[in-house]
Amino acid sequence: MRKSYMRRVIPIILLAVALAFIFRSQLFASYIVNGESMEPTLYDGNLLMVNKVVYNLTDVDRFDVIVFHANEKDDYVKRVIGLPGDSIVYKSDKLYINGDYIGEPFLKSFKKTSSVTPYTDDFTLVGTTGKTQVPEGKLFVMGDNRRNSLDSRKIGFVPIDEVVGKVDIKYWPFSDLQLSFG
Question: Which domains are present in the chain?
Fold first, then answer.
């Protein structure tokens, strides 16, 4: 009886391990936040689960928190601010996209508690073509810690094909579990 039970269980266990490996390596990736650029949304040492296939099925949305290849050895986590074709202006601590004011509700409580004003310095996006818009195939990203973030204001536009995926879950520390970043 025990031998026949093991013959049924072992293939199920092997299948479960194989599926877990495929699921983990092909669909999701785990990342550790390194630095302060996304504070107070994400802190140094937070563990994230990044959905690697979502952008094969849908487009990147404004305010998605993404992980992308910043260079050959570093991946960054930032928030999408500008999409291809967008004109971006930050004036008096307010974001304007294509001339329209766009609220950033994820920053509201942070701006109230920040002793530094403005929370985000004024700027007007000037692309490589001299036009004030995000080029096709690129994104404009910023960290939520606007005063201490190496983002598109310094590194330039992020090619969409360098995006690893969308941050879906912050799972460590477990007491700060978060399932949404919009």
Answer: 2-176 (2.10.109.10)
